[in-house]
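Supplementary Note 3. Input sequence used for the single-chain structure prediction.
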Amino acid sequence: PAIRDNEGNTRTDNDINYDGTFYLVLICGGFGVIASGFILGVMMRFPETIIQFATFYSLGMSFIFVLFGIWSQQVYIVLTGLLLFLSELCYAYAVWFFIPFASINLKVGLSAVRSNLGIALLAYIFVALSLLWTCLWSISLVGIFQVNGCSDGSSCLENTNSGFLVTMFLSLFWTLQVIQNVSTTSIAGVIGTWWFTPADASCFCSRAVRDSFIRATTYSFGSICLGSLLVAIIQTIQQLVKQVRYANEQERQGVACDAILLCLADCLLSCIDSLLEYFNKFSFIYCGLYGYGYFEAGKKVMTLFRARAFEVIISDDLVNNSLLLTSLIVGLISGCVGLIIEKVESSWFEVFGESSMIMAFLLGFIVGWLLASIMFSVVASSVNTVIVLCCEAPAEFQQNHPELSNELWREWRRSGRAPIGSSVVLI
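The predicted structure, written as discrete structure tokens, is reproduced below.
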């Protein structure tokens, strides 16, 4: 009996209960969604203040980096921090006059999203699909490695057929790109409907949300797959280069020249990937708005950039910086909620031992930040669509949303930029 009791106790001690972690994720996720909705309301009322704060935040962080270098008495950290601070200062000075116009773009994009919150639900579904696909892909890759009998990174590369690796990485990146771009195209379609026919885009799951999703997954799906394939090919080559670099470092057989060439190739591919993704972001907006094919949409993007590259890039950057900062704020709020939960229900986190407070904060932060990032990615796509429509159809905006239109063009005139089109009425 004593042996049986001991065995029973052993089984009980080895049972790990993650129920508390599950409850934490649910509670922090709920707070993250509520905080995101609250911040959306704040951004609607004070968009210019949010963007200005994000600009000062970047300056402040670079200055703190300088102070850290002085405190640690590391000259290279001080010099790097000074370089970052000066570059941020020059950037802030150059774009400061443009912040009011970018803030109105943000306000217009938020207005469109609030009228069609169903697109945020679509974004969460797309993220869930991406996570599911990544899990299935990872299981498949592990199976391939096990069949080939590899035990570490280098032997996996040596023993696995390169064709399998290329196919696996291409399938991963291509599918993820398609899911992401279907989301972008759907959002653009919804914002376009709100811009041209607001009566069809004025509720949570409006007709615009349904129709835009259907168009993105049927009529425009071929264009989305083509544009996504171009990015996926670059990302696949980049990943293979990284794997070769890792294998050479593990075996220490590569000469310095090879290492330098691989590093340069990795850097070049990363730049090409970033440029192509940025180009695709606006190409798929045109696909969602007008149903263009990929190449025709690309021509429209080039025309847009030739005419308004400064306005497009600066507005996109200012808005994205502010959305990134607000996502971090939501993450910090959720992390603090996690700490409160750990204090109230410490038994939920016994599995983490002495690290329970750290894990509670990190889990809360990650959940809140992830949910906020998904929500604000919808806002970012809607703002980019607004930027495109400002150049393509200003008269329709004036007709259907006169108050927002008057406010937007008033700030445009204050920025000192040339008029977008003769059809725009400046109030």
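Residues 294-344 form the longest helix (51 residues). The mean pLDDT is 81.
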